[in-house]
Amino acid sequence: MTTAADAQAARRNQIPLGILYMVASTVVFAGVNAIVKWELAFYPVGEVSFFRALFAFFAVAAIVLPRRGFAVLRTSRYREHLQRGVSQFGSMTCMFLAFRVLSLGSAVAISFSAPLFTTLLSILILKEKVGPHRWSALIVGFIGVLVVTQPGAGSLSSGALFAMANAVLISTVAVAIRRMSATESTETLAIYQMTVITICTVFLLPLGFSAPRWVDALALAVAGVGNGIAQYWWTRSLSLAPPSAVVPFNYLSLVWASILGFAIWGDVPTPALLLGSAIVVASGLYILWRETLRRPRRVAPAPAVSSR
């Protein structure tokens, strides 16, 4: 019989592979976001959202269904899946709207405030007890967000607001996943997520559609499939190793986003972006560390697919 200690030891032995999956997912996510930002300059948000979601659905289905079959669709929590999917659809749409206004690095930096909102919502909704350490990390983290957005300088753009809305919606999804993971597998969460998001994007098409050139259609297909694969790698990473070992590498997305932003659009990271990003990342890692200390004996379930 496998004990919790045995399971933890097995996951520790898989840490190098887990880190590899996490790093690979950040590279692909950055490339996907760059493609999306590029295509948003030529096509409506709804159209880009639809094509990316559709091909991401195909990718996730190709990964999940051969392994689990249609039994993966069995659930008694249809309403919760619908609510979570709609929230993720909203977060994706807000992120795409942010991409149209902000540099790639700025949008990604603000989105990394999601763990702060997740902790805050866990206090309000799940009634989790939080000590002075995590409260301090929350306050410092939000200061970092203010440094990035600079609202006092009159530069709080609509893009920054959309990026923050994305972070808030992702945090509601994370709280929902905590509730649902007790009964729902990662594959079930993933397939319903992509199904609901794809259906929701269909309703955006009447708001604007322009027949894409073949090269743009190919780019959007690559972005969708890449997103689905990166989602699977991200989830795989967290199933192979403890979150405390692999989640810090998720912040490499900021590095790749800044590099791509400079290479493609000539975006030079500002001192405020660098400082604010460092504060947000540090506070997020500190919260993760405190979570690890708080639950040393708990074997965490593999988190659901990341909403990107």
Spell out the blueprint of helices and strands.
Elements (H helix, E strand, L loop, with lengths): L3 H10 L1 H25 L5 H24 L9 H24 L2 H8 L2 H11 L7 H18 L8 H23 L5 H17 L11 H27 L2 H4 L5 H14 L5 H24 L14
Helix pairs in contact: 2-10, 2-12, 3-9, 3-10, 4-8, 4-9, 5-8, 5-12, 5-13, 6-7, 6-8, 7-13
Defining key terms:
308 residues, mainly alpha, 13 helices
- The succession of helices and strands, N to C, reads HHHHHHHHHHHHH
Radius of gyration: 19 Å
Percent of residues in beta strands: under 5%
Major sheet attributes: none
Annotation, overall tally of beta strands = 0
Coarse structural class: mainly alpha
Poorly predicted runs are 297-305
The helix content, as a percent range, equals: over 70%
What is the overall silhouette? globular
Number of helices: 13
Average the pLDDT over all residues and give the rounded result. 85
Number of domains: 1
The first-to-last residue Cα distance is: 38 Å
Please provide a brief summary of the model.
The protein is mainly alpha-helical. It contains 13 helices and no strands.
What does this protein look like?
The structure is a single chain. α5 runs parallel beside α13 (271-294). The chain starts with a helix and ends in a 14-residue tail after the last helix. It is mostly helical and 308 residues long. Helices cover 74% and strands 0% of the residues. The model is unreliable at 297-305 (pLDDT under 50). The protein contains 13 helices and no strands. The radius of gyration is 19 Å and the shape is globular. The chain has one domain (17-294).
